[in-house]
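Work Package 4 report. The design task specified in the project plan requires that, given a folded chain encoded as structure tokens, an amino acid be chosen for each position. We show below one input record used in the internal validation round.
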């Protein structure tokens, strides 16, 4: 279960969309709790990160996904159970971005990585919440930051 963080005051996440709730009901109870804990962190980070705005929560590729539909500031983040490795769940990022490579550089030992697309967790892992918060914020602002970096100065 994630460690609580004093820098993230509790923000109640929005109600689960029906399609997402139905998908999560298919997950084993322990994994569902872990995925919901990650969802809460994503929602908290989005609420506290300037310029992100509300998230659009839906299913993408059959997995719970969060997109910055209004602001278009970031890249989609997905969270899903890994049924072929039933004790695992993961947070997925667009593999066409440099996000996971950046996470590996910043936090080489904080997470298990899958290629350039995912952070993988075991159901009993204690999650490095502060590092994860930074990773999520980077994903939710990815497009905005890239655009700013390309702008003439």
């Amino acid at each position: 279960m994630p460690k609580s963080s004093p820098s993230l005051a509790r923000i109640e996440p929005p109600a689960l969309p029906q399609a997402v709730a139905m998908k999560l009901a298919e997950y084993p109870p322990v994994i569902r709790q872990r995925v919901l804990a990650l969802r809460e962190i994503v929602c908290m980070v989005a609420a506290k990160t300037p310029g992100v705005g509300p998230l659009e929560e839906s299913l993408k590729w059959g997995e719970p996904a969060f997109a910055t539909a209004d602001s278009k500031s970031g890249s989609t983040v997905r969270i899903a159970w890994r049924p072929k490795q039933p004790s695992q769940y993961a947070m997925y990022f667009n593999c066409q971005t440099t996000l996971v490579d950046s996470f590996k550089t910043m936090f080489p030992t904080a997470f298990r990585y899958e290629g350039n697309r995912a952070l993988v967790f075991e159901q009993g892992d204690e999650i490095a919440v502060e590092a994860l918060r930074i990773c999520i914020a980077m994903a939710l602002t990815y497009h905005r930051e890239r655009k700013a970096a390309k702008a003439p100065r």
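The mean pLDDT is 90. Validation will be extended to a larger panel in the next phase.
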